[in-house]
Amino acid sequence: MVEDGINTMDNKLDLSQYDEEQVRLMGEMCIQLDQNDIPIGAVSKKQSHLMENINKGMLHRAFSVFLFNSENKLLLQQRADEKITFPECWTNTCCSHPLATESELVEHEQLGVKRAAQRKLEHELGIKPEQVPLNNFKYLTRIHYLSPSDGMWGEHEIDYILFIKADVDLDPNVNEVKDTKYVSMDELKLFIENAEKTGTKLTPWFKLIDTNFLYKWWAQLDNLDKMVDAKTIHRLL
């Protein structure tokens, strides 16, 4: 459950310097977890992303979608300047959190996480749900990581990795997404390699997935069943 004193701190926190819509979204209720990915309560997005709480061990559930088109190119997004955590960073197609609601808490076949992914693909990128059916998402594994964004904010998540192959129509929400682009495997490797020289910022979870998993999964994009590791939580801390 939410730790004593966090609600009081949450209410007193001044977010007036941030974008109004992003502050509103900080009120959404995420799924608080124990170290084994067992839900133990609901906690606001604001509370779960404060380093003060993360440093006390607060952990929440997340997902990362990697969407590929029919040419096997990966859709990247650059997070909007308005984002409170990791603004302007390039990352995989969509990264967010299932909410502590009945429909997104469903554990069977990761249905709750897939519903959240479908919801956020539409919210961030304007991708209609019928273009990304729930049954087409392939759950690969989970990663557990922790990373500060700045002095106040950060991430501490168990992140469900979802792949999907679909040709989609994009209508990005400019409050969420600054830019998008499709890349081949070689183009992404070059993009990552040159990021430091070009001053391009990348999200920490994307870098971890890129370094540890992405290319071996990508190489088996049309045969992903053998890549699934549903039981392991990879601790990348």
From TrEMBL:
Pathway involvement of the protein, from the record:
Isoprenoid biosynthesis; dimethylallyl diphosphate biosynthesis; dimethylallyl diphosphate from isopentenyl diphosphate: step 1/1
Q: What class of enzyme is it?
A: isomerase
| Enzyme nomenclature, EC number | 5.3.3.2
Task: Write out the GO MF terms.
Answer: isopentenyl-diphosphate delta-isomerase activity; metal ion binding
List the GO terms this entry assigns under cellular component, sorted alphabetically. Answer: cytoplasm
Matches recorded under Gene3D superfamilies:
Nucleoside Triphosphate Pyrophosphohydrolase (3.90.79.10)
Q: Indicate the segments forming the Nudix hydrolase domain, all copies.
A: 58-208
Annotated CDD domains: NUDIX_IPP_Isomerase
Superkingdom of origin: Eukaryota
Q: Which reaction does it catalyse?
A: isopentenyl diphosphate = dimethylallyl diphosphate
Origin species:
Coemansia reversa (strain ATCC 12441 / NRRL 1564)
Q: Which GO terms describe its biological process?
A: dimethylallyl diphosphate biosynthetic process; isopentenyl diphosphate biosynthetic process; steroid biosynthetic process
> Could you tell me which InterPro entries the record lists for this protein?
IsopentenylPP_isomerase_typ1, NUDIX_hydrolase-like_dom_sf, NUDIX_hydrolase_dom
Task: Print the keywords alphabetically.
Answer: Isomerase, Isoprene biosynthesis, Lipid biosynthesis, Lipid metabolism, Magnesium, Metal-binding, Steroid biosynthesis
Q: Which cofactor does it need?
A: Mg(2+)
Similarity comment: family membership: Belongs to the IPP isomerase type 1 family.
Q: Does the keyword Metal-binding apply?
A: yes
Q: Which Pfam families match?
A: NUDIX
- Protein name from the UniProt record: isopentenyl-diphosphate Delta-isomerase
Specify whether Isomerase is a keyword of the entry.
Answer: yes
